[in-house]
């Protein structure tokens, strides 16, 4: 216990010296005793113990021992990847600022400190590519809504949907309404996604068939829209249905960005130029909370 406290104190000092934007603790580590003004986040993720690999018959033990170094590396790499993805997710949702993140990662048998630069994060770099077409504030707003829909569904049921952002004129020309457009005739302020008061209607309409069409300034142009698009040459991972394929296809023929929410699997996909730019597990936030929130709950 004292060893872990010492490591945590070292991580806090390092974060303060580096002027890090956040500290992320990943593993079954107590946060008691952490005292810093830097935001502290926590993620619990168990990994199989190296000891489990060593408990075997004597005949197999020699091979197991030779694999210990590789197992340690794999566990640490998995933890680092998880931490980097968590950092990127929180940044994309506006919870973290750009900069350095200090992480404390724990496998069952080891503990270490890493420093991650969000500038170099692959997901963050992909997001910046999207922001060349759709403003960052609009992207983040739609992602927040997508995460909410993916993690909570609607009325206790899982929901899948898709958001098409930008290049509205071309997207509308390549699609048609399958129901009456619930946003037709409404004032701009009532269709503005940047106003959080309007999010509830989006979540409600996410149960409708079809996609949402959103302007690059965050106005809801349509819901319940069917994409008239030839998607035969679109190649996506197996298991992704027509919603994902048509969303990817519309980004091939326009300069729009598509964000889809899987009805099953808790995955959010982002498409651009007919290809998947990234996929994010919406469940990554479920075990991710600030220290301040954690204290308030206790």
Q: Please give the domain count.
A: 2
Proportion of beta-strand residues:
15-25%
The value of Rg in angstroms is 22 Å
**Spatial strand order of the main sheet:** 6-8-7-5-9-10-11
Average pLDDT reading: 81
Specify the CATH homologous superfamily of the largest domain.
Answer: DNA integrity scanning protein, DisA, N-terminal domain
List keywords for this structure.
disordered C terminus, 12 strands, YojJ-like (1, 5-stranded mixed sheet, 10 helices, Pyruvate Kinase, Chain: A, domain 1, 7-stranded mixed sheet, 298 residues, 2 domains, elongated, 38% helix, alpha+beta
Explain how this protein is built.
This protein is α+β, with helices and mostly antiparallel strands. It is 38% helix and 21% strand. The chain has two domains: 2-120, 3-Layer(aba) Sandwich (Pyruvate Kinase, Chain: A, domain 1); 127-281, YojJ-like (1. It has a seven-stranded mixed β-sheet, sandwiched between helices. A five-stranded mixed β-sheet has the order 4-3-1-2-12, sandwiched between helices. Strand 9 (257-261) and strand 10 form a beta hairpin. Residues 46-62, 64-76 and 286-298 have low confidence and may be disordered.
